[in-house]
Design brief:
single chain, mainly alpha, two-stranded antiparallel sheet, two-stranded parallel ribbon, 22 helices, elongated, MICOS complex subunit MIC60, MIC60, transmembrane helix, mitochondrion inner membrane, coiled coil
Length: 686
């Protein structure tokens, strides 16, 4: 919509607001229709076609369904509060119908509109049937409310009775033990329970009884009006008590009994009083032409003062102080009731009451101090006992945790060893399988080559036969020569295959021996693997003498039975054990070193800085640093060469380590020799 078209529309709306506010919508629709027609005309004239407006089906359905639901619930609620059948159907069949009807009845919606709260005896809420038409059933909701209020009244009465029993029990216990726990202050009125008027309910129960009566009559309950009525009645009673003259002692002790007063009231015009002996049922009205009697007026009477001495009569045997205090309070109350203006003449009575209250307060304080001291002693003793128990529990828990930790460590070690054994068995099985596969493959290759040679020989023979046939047997010598060549090739191939098999066997034995000796993480004996390698290497006719000599030298030593130390163990042995011990004796001379020299060398070695890396120099510390560097680089040969330069006590300390390193180097050199010879043989075969 253009700005030129918005201005007339705004002007029309403002004009309509100023002239007739009740027709704003009509003017707006009219102006909008005219504007829309103008837009359509302008669009047709310009020749542009506007896209159709999308129909919002979901929003329309949501709006219409909401309106229909609200209308149905509203109409159903109005019908339910005006008709019993509709009421029953709406509360039983419609979702949330019962809650809606309860809300409507609590707000006073009867006949579709809320009505003021009036007496149902004068203006009934709904037209009730006459007794002649038969009793009608009471609505279920009202019956439920009555039952709920009855239960509330019973619970309130039980609660008040229980509270009174507790107070009586506390007073009795206090009187017997001399511990007035129930007395919270030294004021006289705080020590005694509030007196109950005769034939009356306890506090809170009377309101519930009135509420029950109101519900039975059909009146809705209004808490605010009840509270206002209570406040008003209290103020009026105070004014009456102030203006009324004082009563005598006999009148105070014997309260007057209220007598109901029946007013002589004429019945309404055209009606007579309903004098049936049996009362009407709940929710029913008298027949037409009859009216109910107005309620009886009962005059209010003032009850006399209750005495304190009878209330504490059961405590006088154990607590005479309470009896004296109660008699003092009763005498003071009687005197003040008889002579309300004689306040100056009661000083003696007040002094006696003050003295009794002071004695009672001192006794309460002494009892409190004794109970406090006993409680502190008991708490201190219990704290010590529980501290000892807590310490014992903590020690037991630590012992259990240590035992569990040790058990888990043992279990972990067993599992680790079992896992290592399983993996070793798996590795051996895989090696055996690979060896069998390689041998099977070699056999298949040999068979295939033999078949191919046979085919080639047959073809050659056939060719030669044909040539001989065609050449008149002139080339018999050539056939013989070819046959010899063929035999030579066959022998060469057989030798080639045998050599290949031997080389494969040598390599397999060499790898097995290497895995057991050099590459093994633990020390193992390897005499069986060495024997296999020797038998495979000596099977060939042209076996190298150096290889056999190296293998025989290893067999004659004890190394195959003992095994080799892994490189990681040698490094750890040197770093953790041998290295520090050698460093401690580096300053000891080669000959003549005593205990003091050893002790001084050990102390000074601890104070010197540790060297690392390729340090230059021929002193023992530099040699040790270079050896440790070579060991970290996994160069055992260089480390051994460096350590062989040491002399004296250092050489003696390194004797075992050097022996283990030499055994490993000897085996390693022998394996390298065998590997070189096997590689050379493989190259010669190719």
């Amino acid at each position: 919509m253009s700005s030129a078209m918005r201005r007339p529309l705004a002007a029309n709306i403002s004009r309509s607001l100023s002239t007739n506010p009740g027709r704003i919508r009509v003017t707006h629709i009219r102006n909008f229709t005219a504007t829309r027609k103008a837009l359509n005309t302008a669009g047709d004239a310009s020749g542009t076609i506007k896209p159709k407006k999308k129909r919002r089906i979901f929003r329309s359905m949501l709006i219409y369904s909401t309106l229909v639901t609200l209308t149905a619930y509203g109409a159903g609620t109005v019908a339910a509060v005006n008709n019993e059948r509709a009421h029953d159907f709406f509360s039983e069949s419609v979702p949330f119908g019962e809650q809606i009807l309860d809300f409507a009845e609590s707000k006073g919606f009867v006949g579709g509109l809320p009505r003021p709260l009036v007496d149902p005896a004068v203006t009934p809420r709904r037209q009730r049937p006459t007794p002649s038409s038969g009793p009608a059933p009471e609505p279920p909701k009202k019956h439920e409310k009555i039952e709920a209020l009855k239960s509330r009244v019973e619970e309130k009465v039980k609660e008040k009775k229980g509270r009174l029993r507790e107070v009586a029990g506390q007073l009795r216990t206090t009187a017997e033990k001399g511990e007035p726990h129930g007395l919270q202050s030294t004021h006289i009125s705080g020590t005694l329970p509030a007196p109950l008027p005769p034939k009356s309910y306890s506090e809170g129960v009377e309101d519930l009884v009135k509420e029950v009566k109101g519900v039975l009559k059909g009146d809705p309950v209004d808490r605010q009006e009840q509270e206002a009525a209570k406040v008003k009645a209290a103020s009026e009673s105070e004014k009456t008590a102030e203006s009324a003259p004082p009563k005598s002692e006999a009148a105070a002790e014997t309260p007057s009994t209220p007598t109901p007063v029946q007013e002589d009231v004429e019945p309404p015009k055209g009606k007579q009083w309903y004098d049936n002996k049996s009362p009407l049922p709940l929710g029913f009205e008298p027949p037409p032409g009859y009216a109910l009697h107005p309620p009886k007026v009962v005059p209010k009477t003032k009850a006399g003062l209750l005495l304190v001495a009878p209330a504490v009569a059961e405590f006088t045997a154990s607590e005479p102080l309470l009896s004296e205090l109660a008699s003092t309070v009763d005498s003071l109350a009687k005197y003040l009731e008889d002579n309300p203006k004689a306040e100056r003449s009661v000083n003696k009575v007040l002094d006696v009451a003050k003295k009794d209250l002071a004695d009672l307060g001192n006794k309460i304080e002494s009892v409190k101090k004794e109970s406090k001291e006993q409680l502190e002693t008991s708490l201190h003793r219990q704290a010590e006992e529980y501290s000892v128990k807590l310490l014992e529990a903590e020690l037991n828990a630590r012992d259990k945790l240590d035992a569990q930790d040790e058990e888990w460590r043992h279990y972990f070690e067993q599992e680790r060893l079992a896992l290592l054994q399983r993996y070793q068995e798996k590795l051996d099985n895989e090696l055996t399988t690979q060896k069998e596969l390689i041998n099977e493959r070699l056999k298949e290759e040999v068979i295939a080559q033999g078949i191919e040679l046979q085919r080639r020989w047959i073809r050659d023979v056939q060719l030669h036969v044909e040539e001989e046939r065609g050449g008149r047997l002139a080339k018999l010598e050539e056939v013989a020569t070819g046959l010899k060549k063929l035999e030579r090739l066959t022998l060469d191939n057989a030798m080639y295959l045998d050599e290949n098999l031997r080389l494969h066997a040598v390599w397999s034995a060499l790898r097995a021996l290497t895995n057991v000796t050099v590459e093994s993480p633990v020390r193992k004996p390897f005499r069986d693997e060495l024997h296999v390698l020797k038998s495979v290497a000596s099977a060939a006719g042209n076996a190298d003498d150096a290889v056999l000599v190296a293998i025989e030298s290893l067999e004659k030593s004890e190394t195959p039975d003992v095994g080799l130390e892994p490189l990681a163990d040698l490094t750890s042995w040197f770093v953790t054990s041998v290295g520090p011990r050698v460093s401690a004796v580096t300053l000891v001379p080669d000959h003549g070193g005593g205990v003091l020299m050893h002790l001084a060398s050990s102390i000074l070695s601890a104070l010197r800085f540790k060297r690392s890396g390729l340090v230059e120099g021929n002193d023992p510390l530099s040699i040790m640093a270079r050896a440790e560097y070579y060991l970290n680089e996994k160069d055992l040969d260089s480390a051994t060469r460096e350590l062989n330069q040491l002399q004296g006590p250092a050489k003696e300390l390194l004797r075992d380590w050097l022996a283990a390193a030499r055994r490993r180097l000897e085996v390693q050199q022998a394996l390298e020799l065998v590997q070189s010879q096997a590689t050379l043989s493989s190259l010669l075969v190719l």
